Amino acid sequence: MYASREDIGYEFGDDSKVGSKPVKPNPNIDGGWAWMIVFSSFLVHILIMGSQMALGVLNMEWLEEFNQSRGLTAWVSSLSMGITLIVGPFIGLFISMCGCRLTAIIGGILNALGWILSAYASSVHYLFLTFGVTAGIGSGMVYLPAVVMVGQYFQKRRALAQGLSTTGTGFGAFLMTALLKYLCTEFGWRNAMFIQGAISLNLCVCGALMRPLSPKDLSEKSVVRSNSEENRAKALSHSTETIKSNGVLGDEPEKKEEATTEEVLESVQHVEIGGNSGNGRNMYGLRMLKTVSQLTLTVRKGFALWYSSYFGAASLFTNRVFVAFIIWALFAYSSFVIPFIHLPEIVKQYNLSRQDNVFPLTSIIAIVHIFGKVILGIISDLPCISTWNVFLMANFTLVTCILTLPLMQTYVGLAVVCALIGFSSGYFSLMPVVTEDLVGTKHLANAYGIIICANGISALFGPPFAGWIYDITQKYDYSFYIAGLLYMVGMIFLLIQPCIQKKQPRQKSTEEAQV
Hints:
The chain is an all-alpha fold. It has helices spanning about 35-55, 55-65, 70-85, 90-100, 100-120, 125-155, 160-165, 170-185, 190-200, 200-210, 215-230, 230-235, 235-245, 250-275, 280-310, 320-350, 355-360, 360-380, 385-405, 410-425, 430-440, 445-475, 475-515. It comes from Tachuris rubrigastra.
């Protein structure tokens, strides 16, 4: 298929100036504190993604409490899951300005506030605002930094690290389902949400563990990568130089603005040193001016990086393979979410409720999903294996299972298909790795924010669309068929664009040989 993941895209930025210098590796990259980052991300996936997978427990309580239609009530869960991912690009702006640690801490507070306020809901529409929007935005502010930090701290074992951290989704689905069932039975759903809000404050602790790497450490990580991939990067030098010639991030204007601001800071410091004997009130005003100037510089830098990534000359959208990746993401995530939402109803229609109560099919997906993430991560980190090829093979397996699931009408058949769905969907742990290979570490936050935004749109509209198809046809078969076909459309884009991207440098080299 494709020789390696480096052949499918290019990175923004120029590391050629430092690529030839020997650099002492940072002990925290691929080791040391990096494993604390994995642990923090693991807990984030338990508290956020695991809780969202367990919302079916609360959905039943909301149906009994508010007596609304199933479609309207289901939008509460869909909004929470969708907004968590849709806000990704805007959270990238927060990360650019404030860093991952502060963004995650604020998000943890907001997520807990959404759970607590939802305990006082008087209607489903109230839950739209408190749980769907407030808790959803808070979840997004913690989820994206958790993924980005793992990518920053790992170079050689990125796929394994992402796989270990994202297994928290499977563990969380088990733990949170059991916890919410117990809390609802013992204390009622309102007190259960209040207690869950208190538990969610632990997200702030997870955010505090996200110690940022220094710019020097990040540059060393880039040097290590550039040295190991130097020969392969030359094949794509023409594409990279074309983008650099357009001005990668508008460095010159940014440098001028930075110099102007630094002059102001230096003048303030000079006045402070020379005016120690002056009025204390004036000194306080000068310190405030210095603080405001520093804050303005930080915000301006962060916004410039965020804006240039989306709309500047080095826009992420100039990478055709990345654009194809976005189109794929618009259809992919719903194929994973739809079985979690509609499998219980399918089991009921096939009169398999007794077997499903012993060992639910959704639990089979969650268990095997854990092993799938770890195993696919280990395989992808092997030197002779391409992460891109593993990613594609897992996608083909998943779409095949989605299309064949309606054909299974026995518990054993459904269990086998669900196990394959769980294992193949482990490719989610490879998505940050593939994204970083396409755009580079510097743009990972913004790029992955776009990807999870596309996934959020898919999660927001996928399950309601499947329910709408059922209302028309009175069968879930067509819901899975249509979801599988749309998934295939996204796969076609992933297959076409890398071939085009790969051929362009080869055509250039042939012309130069003739000259």
